[in-house]
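Practice problem 4.
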């Protein structure tokens, strides 16, 4: 995530901000330009030369600060329009959870835009577009709970809104023995399944994928059953980025895909704050204030990313320990995991 400033007064603002705390300008983000625009408190539109923008229809309800061109018939921003189902808003808790989910999704869409991956055409080819449903568990008349399972099905990503509740998510994290579980992690993981369908399946990359991640034709249901019954094999840390990645080839890919997004976005943030931890000759262009416009999202080579990432994580882990927190980055990346991450890098950047 890059660093932003209020375009009116130059005070630092953050990706989620809809108002500058210094000059009180109304802020709006345009993903196509990766820029914050401003309007006075009394203006209804934001302007960039000849182009005018309006607020996303969700600005008031969930504080979405993304903008839409004023002459666009669509009332929702690029991110919000891809949500097809939202939870029952008669519950204040559901509204808060929905807002948190959409904020995390906007960060996913930020990365998708930076990588130029595309999200499909909701109007003309909706069945192949990236879509989301945010649902809550429900009680049946007999008092039983019908659980909503987070997952992916041919481009449709369903997320249980309970994942937006910090105590609930932490409970799941501990119960499943995970070192890391976040909303943005869910979005990045599930999007990996979507992009596997578009970038790997039925392409020349499939054989190379199977050589690195294993054969996806293994029965998925049986693989998950085995994983939940017996757990990951001993020594899984040497070959997989998480224990869940051991469950099936598809899950290994999705976990690695999410991890690659973590790395690249983390490096972009570190660069903009002068914490990138790599030498000027590491092969990644940077400006005195941080990365260049392309930054790590546009890095042609994979290894320079890792040369920057590894020392940064060592330093951040040490920083966390110095103030009594758990490790910022509780992972160890082996050569095998490097190869998987490099495959992800390749299919993102070598799409022809």
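Answer key:
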């Amino acid at each position: 995530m890059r660093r932003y400033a209020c375009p009116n007064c130059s005070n630092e603002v953050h990706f989620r901000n809809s108002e500058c705390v210094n000059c009180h300008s109304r802020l709006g983000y345009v993903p196509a330009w990766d820029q914050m625009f401003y309007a006075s408190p009394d203006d209804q539109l934001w302007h960039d030369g000849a182009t005018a923008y309006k607020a996303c229809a969700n600005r008031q309800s969930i504080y979405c600060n993304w903008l839409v061109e004023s002459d666009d018939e669509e009332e929702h921003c690029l991110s919000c329009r891809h949500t097809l189902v939202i939870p029952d808003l008669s519950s204040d808790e559901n509204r808060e959870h929905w807002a948190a989910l959409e904020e995390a999704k906007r960060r996913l869409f930020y990365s998708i835009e930076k990588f130029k991956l595309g999200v499909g055409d909701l109007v003309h080819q909706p069945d192949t577009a990236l879509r989301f449903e945010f649902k809550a568990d429900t009680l049946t008349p007999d008092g039983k709970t019908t659980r909503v399972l987070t997952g992916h099905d041919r481009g449709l990503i369903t997320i249980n809104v309970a994942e937006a509740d910090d105590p609930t998510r932490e409970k799941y994290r501990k119960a499943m023995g995970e070192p890391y579980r976040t909303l943005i992690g869910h979005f990045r993981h599930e999007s990996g399944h979507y992009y596997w369908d578009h970038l790997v399946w039925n392409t020349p990359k499939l054989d190379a994928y199977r050589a690195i991640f294993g054969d996806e034709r293994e029965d998925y249901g049986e693989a998950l059953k085995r994983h939940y019954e017996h757990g990951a094999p001993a020594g899984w840390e040497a070959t997989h980025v998480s224990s869940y990645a051991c469950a099936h080839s598809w899950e290994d890919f999705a976990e690695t895909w999410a991890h690659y997004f973590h790395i690249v976005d983390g490096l972009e943030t570190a660069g903009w704050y002068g914490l990138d931890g790599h030498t000027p000759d590491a092969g990644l262009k940077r400006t005195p204030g941080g990365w260049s416009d392309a930054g790590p999202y546009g890095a042609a080579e994979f290894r320079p990313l890792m040369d920057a990432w590894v020392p940064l994580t060592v330093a951040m882990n040490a920083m966390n320990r110095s103030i009594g927190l758990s490790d910022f980055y509780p992972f160890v990346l082996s050569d095998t995991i490097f190869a998987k991450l490099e495959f992800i890098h390749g299919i993102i950047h070598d799409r022809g």
